[in-house]
Amino acid sequence: MKNRRQFLLEAMAWSAGLGLPVPLWDATSAFAIENTPKLVVVTGKSYDILVTKALETLGWPGAFIKNGDKVVIKPNIGWDRNVAQGANSHPIVVVQLAKLALDAGAGEVKIFDHTCNEKRRCYVNSGIQDGVAAIGDKRVRLLHIDQRKFVPVDIKNGKSLSQWEIYRDALEADVYINVPVAKHHGLSRLTLGLKNAMGVIGGRRGSLHFNLGQKLADLATVIRPTLTVVDATRLLMRNGPQGGNEDDVEIRDTVIASTDPVAADAYATTLFGLKPEEIDSTVAAHAMGLGEMDPAKMRIQEFQL
Amino acid sequence: MTAKNPSNKRPLQNRLLLRRLSQLLFLGLFLFLFIHTDYSGADDMAYAVNILFRLDPFLAATVMLASKVVIALMVPAIAVLLLALVVGRAFCGWFCPMGSLLDVCRHGVKSDRAGKNTLFPRLGLWLFIVTLLLAFCGFHVAGYVDPFSILVRGLAQAFYPAAHGMTESVFTFTYLHAPDAVNNITEPIYSWLKETILPAERKYFQLAFFSFAILGGVMLLEMAQKRFFCRNICPLGAMFGLLSRYGLMRSRGGDKECGKCRVCSSLCRMGAINENRDIDMSRCNLCLECQVRCPRRVIRFGFSQPKQTSTIRGLSRRQFIGAVASAMVLPSIKEVHGLDKWSDPLLIRPPGALPEDEFVGRCVRCAECIQVCIGNGLQPTFLEGGLDAIFTPKLAARTGYCEFNCTLCGQVCPTGAIRQLTRQEKHLMKIGNAWFDRDLCLPHAKGIPCMVCEEHCPTPVKAIQFREATVINSDGAQVTVKQPYIVDDLCIGCGICEYKCPLPGLPGIFVTSGGEHRNPEHQLPRPEDFYGS
């Protein structure tokens, strides 16, 4: 038991930035890769129905979620842009996922992103703050990043990264649903599911941009989404990843879902008229055995609603 | 205001209570507005958070003298002037948040020089006159001495962020090291604090110690005597004092029958009561302490009391000549300093800032824009803008950047030194221009791919574009790499590229004031001017 003086001394040491050691996190877990992953592509005008159809086709709720589970939904809310500008995940997609998790008996649903622009502006302008508030269920919370929750994680299988700070809530979730918005990116050509992991990591994120594809694949060995739901309702074709000009946005009314993060990215790439092998992170992740990148080897189910 | 029954102590003490309640209320209101000088979830400010500065007749007078125009934003200050004509310096005793804060501070310091004679009785008036003259002559430094500027600056640039840091440290400690039983209590408290009074993000200020020293100094001076700042320095108080002399509020002090009793003068926090127990209404802030404590109950305040001569004296001839002389000297030395000849290229003003001379003439160093800046991009200037521009805001893009869709600084500026911009105007408002340092920028210097600046560039058509180039990298290998470049016509100088540049130390891309719209002399050369179109 610490006495008051010891406590204060330690608190002072903390305040002075001396920092007491933080335990290292072990996030390496055994994961099984399906040989022919299931992938669902649904198109239609009602985005909430698309989401429900995609998840149910994959077998939701089934084995995905148990009563009382901790669910994390990780959209891309990185930019102070509105819905039409296509830089953030669509609020209807995000909200519908939260509702499905609640219906399946989730104990709590946390939604967050480590934003690039000012965090409050991103949450408001993306429409996600209002959307989540409208659900009106206390179990669902749109949260801002809490800097205390970044924990150093060993990336044992990493080729380019051996350790990085990752957000605790993402690691601890029972169900982790990755909800990237498919869009153009200057350096990596596209930003999809693997790139969306940038929103659950801390540290100096900008310094990852060298050999980015491999680093994203390395991160994918420890950040393992239960489901990847790619928001391709609108595609930002140019001036990504934040855009700003509606002329750069193509409406595609599509939602892609898979348990295989590489397959989801690979298929979404084709919507831009690109080949999966043109995206470095897809190639690197496939090479590490993290998923399938050849659409011919996927069990693709398409629906038009 | 005289009590009907002097022998009844009750109603008088109620007045003290009333005054304290008023002080508490206005201090609370001030702090409420201070904390809400922030993004509220909407593009427009929810409250007139800058109202205190717009009610300040001293700032209104100096700003209008400096800029030689009537500024509509500051018209509310007339109301406070009229108030002073009616109730004298009651503003200082009942409303002023600085005064109330000092009254609170006094409980923390032991001062045995409470009612001693004011140490520098003419200084405040001298400062008032010199500041006005200087402002008129083009050397506007009212913000250095104005009580509200000192207060908000000190809070915004030192106390508030420091309190935030301390709070965060404590709750980080409990979060990481305390058992769950503790965290079950502390975490809800921390969440509540974050939702109510803590800022959204940590903020960092280059002049933190300087801002702290000034406000902290004003607080510490309570040790020298009660309300030291208000009595000796405050030019706004001196201005009220000047008016009170001709005001309606009068007083009746003690008289010869008081004998040796000096309760009133020894209590007086403003040093307003002299040897003869006359109350000088140009100093008295109507705290009513003397009236309540007077054993004989002879002290009265009201409009019907006989007029008394003020004991305050104006400046001596020598002092006045000194004031005029310095008002002429400083601006002429400023001319010689000639900052417009070699203006600091890193002195980037907020979007909507007026041309430099007008800007410095209007800026009252209130730190409202710096406090509201959600990107922590605005920093107080030190000497880069000259001796008369300390604490004016500048964009320091290594600590923060100007958020593309945000227009808050222009909304909170109480004087219009920063114009209010619509979002559309803001998107096109060029405050500077970005430049690459090709010896540092990774794709240029080392052939290493990096496009973080381009990724963050907020203009819809990016002001940072790239070309593919084949270069020899550090390992001597030939590689093809995307090399970024700036499109001057698209860049607005927001600085997010410099802020996000992942290089440690010097950034590979940086912003200067070159190309800023407000200064025609800073226009960038256009290629067609040299090569023909």
UniProtKB/TrEMBL annotation, chain A:
It comes from Desulfopila aestuarii DSM 18488. It holds the Pfam family DUF362. Residues 71-269 form the DUF362 domain. Keywords: Iron, Iron-sulfur, Metal-binding. It comes from the Bacteria. This is Uncharacterized conserved protein, DUF362 family. One of its GO terms (molecular function) is iron-sulfur cluster binding. InterPro entries: DUF362, TAT_signal.
From TrEMBL, chain B:
GO terms for cellular component: plasma membrane. CDD domains: DMSOR_beta_like (cd16373). The keyword Repeat does not apply. The chain crosses the membrane at residues 58-88, 123-145, 204-221, 228-248. Pfam families: Fer4_5 (PF12801). Residues 515-533 have a biased composition (Basic and acidic residues). Residues 275-304, 393-424, 482-502 form the 4Fe-4S ferredoxin-type domain. This is 4Fe-4S binding domain-containing protein. It comes from Desulfopila aestuarii DSM 18488.
